[in-house]
Fe2OG dioxygenase domain-containing protein
Amino acid sequence: MAAFSVPPVEVSLSKRVQEMVLHGEEPVGPYICRSGKDVGENEDIMSTSPVPIIDLNRLCSSKISDKEREEELEKLRSALSSWGCFQGIGYGISASFLDKIRQVSKEFFKQPIEEKNKYAKTVFDFQGYGADPVPEHGQSLDWSDRLFLDVFPEDRRQYNLWPQMPISFREVLEDYTEKMKMVTEITSKAMAKSLNLEENCFLEQFGKQAQLAARFNYYSPCQRPDLVLGLKPHADGTAYTIILQDDVGLQVLKDGKWYTVPKDPTALLVMGDQMEIMSNGIFKSPVHRVLRNLKKDRVSVAMFYTPEVGKEIGPEDGLVNGDEAKIYKRVKDYAETHWKFYQRGMRALHTAHV
Ligand SMILES: O=C(O)CCC(=O)C(=O)O
Ligand SMILES: [Fe+2]
């Protein structure tokens, strides 16, 4: 299968965008529309989308009948094999806590650049404040502000890069990390059960030291949302990513059409490439992007969940009948392979095909 290729963006535009971000400028003038669509495309941002909602409480609670549980599992399987993602609710995390993590994220980004630059990273680093690593000449850059922090295993934390302001940032992120560990456990088990597999099989593949990294994204209001994207079309190289948003802007591609992920204060969106590999292609990993908004800013927290460093993962035995049926092979550190393609605006899933 050919790699998914996103239309290249002019090198000059990429450079210009980065310079403008640094100087807090807004885009004006005849730039190429980065989504390749007509001006005014953002009008569909408010359209309601049928991105499936899965109630995880219905899968875990003893008060739910077997029939209802089966129905929810079927819904989950169908969501992941058609949309490749779902909005998860019922994880048992309070709305007020989710508001807290959105709040500290926004407060961090609203600070003056000098304050944020205390946590600045170089263009070669992953962790810290600032744009993605930029080794590729002409790599297309996103119109967003970012903070990227490894949060689990704990020895990967670089606390010197964790913001000291707002004052509660560290405590809230530590708490959020614990909650996300619980979310990955519930989600991985639910995914396995939806495929009639032993519930721990995916967790065992990821390993006990599976990694979590938080990417805080901030998209300021933009005078020309028709000209720039907050985040270019891409898929995630993670086992799966868990996205918390405070407003609309995120869109997923399905059957050639972009759908806006609705705003739901307690929902966590789940999607990622490695689940496609481990489910032997039954689940799909969707391409997604983020649009900018004329008047409102937006914050999201993407928690990247990846297998332990150096751990091989592959299609579950229960899903393949002999090697012929295998669509994907076993891979190791796929997220790194993915990253190299991502920087060139491409997908990496073809590298995992048999
Ligand atoms: O901002 C969002 O909602 C999406 C973020 C995302 O796709 C990413 O960080 O990979
Ligand atoms: Fe993403």
